[in-house]
Amino acid sequence: MSAPLSPEPVLSSADRPEPSAAAPRVGDRVTLDIHDLAFGGEGVGRAGEFVVFVPFVCPGERVEVKLTEVKKNFARGEMVRLVTTSPDRVEPGCAYFGECGGCQYQHLSYAAQVLWKQKQITDLFQRVGGFDAAVVRPVVPCPAPYGYRNRVLVRSQWNKPAQKLNLGFIRADCGLVCDIESCAIAEPGINQAITAWRKNPPPKGGLKTLLRIPPEGWIVPEHSFFQNNFFLLPALVDGVRARLADAGSRHLIDAYCGVGFFSLSLAASVDSFLGVELDVPAIRAARQNQQDRGITNGEYVAGDTDALLPSLLAKRDPAKTAVLLDPPRVGCRPPSLHVLRETGPAQILYVSCHPATLARDLKLLCADDRYRVADVLPFDMFPQTQHVECVADLRLVR
After folding, report:
1. How far is CA 386 from the centre of its chain?
2. Among residues 130, 98, 117, 104, which one has the least CA distance to residue 42?
3. In terms of Cα–Cα distance, which of 127, 151, 88, 118 is closest to 5?
4. Per-residue confidence (pLDDT) for residue 22, from 0 to 100
5. Which of 48, 88, 99, 284 is geometrically suited to a Cys-Cys bond with 112, CB 3.0 to 4.6 A?
């Protein structure tokens, strides 16, 4: 089975403390030079030989930090004073930044965000998967670094000390709700919905409300998945289509197909396609989206990918088949990965919003030179945040 990802940061050998290093204590104040930006958004510095992670700082800055958590191999802290400032530091575009937990990078220029995400993905692929850094291509930036998000999940929570209902997003420093009036990374239509939601608030705390702008021309059930950035979506599809064409794949199996976005967008590029999805309302929507477009060279099946993938692969010539994987953030389950290794489709296109789980799964697929990674193309579908979307193109070796 694939190993679960640790919730703690993965330290490179260069960042591991010496055994003899004296461990600092919670409450200590230390001055750090920030030399790196870890995946997740925290800056990396050292207190002697001890690694310290600090949010909302920029590489190249010197900061005074109060330690808030100390583990065996690392510590975390909060900045109490900025000693020297990086030229990449900018004024955040949101008044709630630093309190709201939605964004991690608003203090960093967008050009720097893209470069640091590139480095983070490369580091993860080298450290988690053992892949050559050259397979990771430059990150494709978003044309709208703010005002791009078409879907948000807002929450209500009773604030007992203030005797009021907090309405907004989970805070960065705890599980409480940050009360917000608007969201800087959300589309204007979402902010209008937030205003209306606040005018007619939920009756009590502890409730979640999904606010979404429906994608034009697509049927999407309320709780079914659809990409949350319309601005970069055409480039994402173009990236997948180019790799599909380069491999010469004639048949497509769209695993975790949702409402059929990828398979219907790519239908003209293949002779046939099959989509599989556990979410039954999404499959119904995929069939309706297909019918609305008059597309006749494919079909959709409701069911578990792990269970159905063997039979779906048996219907097509593996030498001419590409399998597109777009699983949840946790990645693919090992049974599906082993089925792919056994059946050997000529191409696997893996779309992921979590580079660490992607690198982990690709390591399994590529073991013993079964597959090779042709390239990994990142798309910044989530500006101002730690998240990034990647498309990995795998080709069968033997």
Report:
1. 8
2. 104
3. 127
4. 62
5. 88
Q: H or E element: which one contains 122?
A: helix 110-127
92: in domain: no
What pLDDT shows up at residue 48? 82
**Taking Cα atoms as reference points, which of 194, 230, 198, 229 lies closest to residue 210?**
194
Q: What confidence score (pLDDT) does residue 13 get?
A: 41
Q: Is the sign of the CA dihedral 358, 360, 365, 368 positive or negative?
A: positive
Domain-located, residue 219: no
Give the list of residues 6+ apart from residue 335 with CB closer than 8 angstroms, or none.
Answer: 306
Cα of 206 vs its chain's centroid, Å = 26
pLDDT digits (tens, 9 = 90+) for 301-319: 999 988 898 889 888 899 9
Say if pTM beats, i.e. exceeds, 0.70.
yes
Among 212, 240, 265, which residue terminates a domain? 212
Q: Which residues contact 260 (CB under 8 A, 6 or more apart)?
A: 254, 275, 285, 286, 287, 289, 290, 300
CB 259 within 8 A of CB 234: no
> CA-CA distances (angstroms) from residue 71 to 17, 50, 76, 158?
11, 10, 8, 33
Answer yes or no: is pLDDT of 8 > 50: no
Number of domains within the chain: 3
